[in-house]
């Protein structure tokens, strides 16, 4: 099985089209993590085609967080100097919008209902107008 799930922030975005007119979006996505006090950043090229590419082109910009699902694909080519190159990219089948840090803090600050471990805690007794004739 060739399945990749990768999330990070968009560093570069290039929108183009195939000869048949199908939209192609190439994203360079960076994922950073800390290990033993040092930050390590991994960059991956993520490629979208067709309607998903149209959506990504419209709604995502450089700096936005994104999560992609797809498969790895290796590309080989020879440049004009005769040097052979190989690159690996993610052929994306799906994506998810991810909240930014600003959106996360705003949603936490604006939440009127108190929560405990993600569970709703009612503010009052919601059973005052309960119909006792319910047969169960």
Q: How would you explain this protein's 3D organization?
A:
- It is globular, with a radius of gyration of 23 Å.
- Strand 6 and strand 7 form a beta hairpin.
- It is 14% helix and 52% strand.
- It contains two helices and seven strands, in the order E-E-E-H-E-E-H-E-E.
- By secondary structure, the chain is mainly beta.
- The chain has a five-stranded mixed beta barrel with strand order 1-2-3-5-4.
- The chain starts with a strand and ends in a 16-residue tail after the last strand.
- The chain has a single domain, classed as OB fold (Dihydrolipoamide Acetyltransferase, E2P) (Beta Barrel), CATH 2.40.50.140.
- The relative contact order is 0.17.
Concise structural overview:
This protein is mainly β and 136 residues long. The strands form two sheets. It has a five-stranded mixed β-barrel. The chain is built from two helices and seven strands, in the order βββαββαββ.
List keywords for this structure.
OB fold (Dihydrolipoamide Acetyltransferase, E2P); 14% helix; five-stranded mixed barrel; two-stranded antiparallel sheet; 136 residues; mainly beta
């Amino acid at each position: 099985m060739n399945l990749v799930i990768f999330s990070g922030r968009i560093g570069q975005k290039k929108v183009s089209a195939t000869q048949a007119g199908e939209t192609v979006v190439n994203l360079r996505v960076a994922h950073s993590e800390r290990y033993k006090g040092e930050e390590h950043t991994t960059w991956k090229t993520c490629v979208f085609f067709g309607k998903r590419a149209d959506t990504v082109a419209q709604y995502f910009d450089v700096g936005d967080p994104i999560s992609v699902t797809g498969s790895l694909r290796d590309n080989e080519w020879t440049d004009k100097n005769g040097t052979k190159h190989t690159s690996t990219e993610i052929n994306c089948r799906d994506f998810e919008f991810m909240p930014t840090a600003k959106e996360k803090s705003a949603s936490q600050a604006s939440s009127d209902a108190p929560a405990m471990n993600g569970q709703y805690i009612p503010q009052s007794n919601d059973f005052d107008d309960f119909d006792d004739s319910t047969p169960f």
